[in-house]
């Protein structure tokens, strides 16, 4: 399975999020991960189209919303919300 970084970001609180494109013979998927405060979370979803030339607007929007939710869940689990 090959992987390519589609985007990555760090915020002022030290949270790091990244979006990876995973490709294998059977399917394409996006893996979004969030790290911070010693906790890692990740979730994936199938893409609408092969992002070889860039992510579709729908997949990009979904990946950003997913990253935001994962960071929120980490914050919540640590009692920061």
Description of the structure:
Helices cover 26% and strands 42% of the residues. The chain is α+β, with helices and mostly antiparallel strands and 81 residues long. Strands 1-2-3-4 form a four-stranded antiparallel sheet. The longest helix is centred in the last third of the chain and has 21 residues.
Order of helices and strands: EEEEH
Kindly state the percentage of residues in helix: 25-40%
Mean pLDDT: 86
Number of helices: 1
Q: Tell me the strand order in the biggest sheet.
A: 1-2-3-4
> Regions with pLDDT < 50 over 5+ consecutive residues?
none
Q: What fraction of residues sit in β-strands?
A: 35-45%
* Rg computed from alpha carbons, rounded to a whole number of angstroms: 13 Å
The shape, in one word, is: elongated
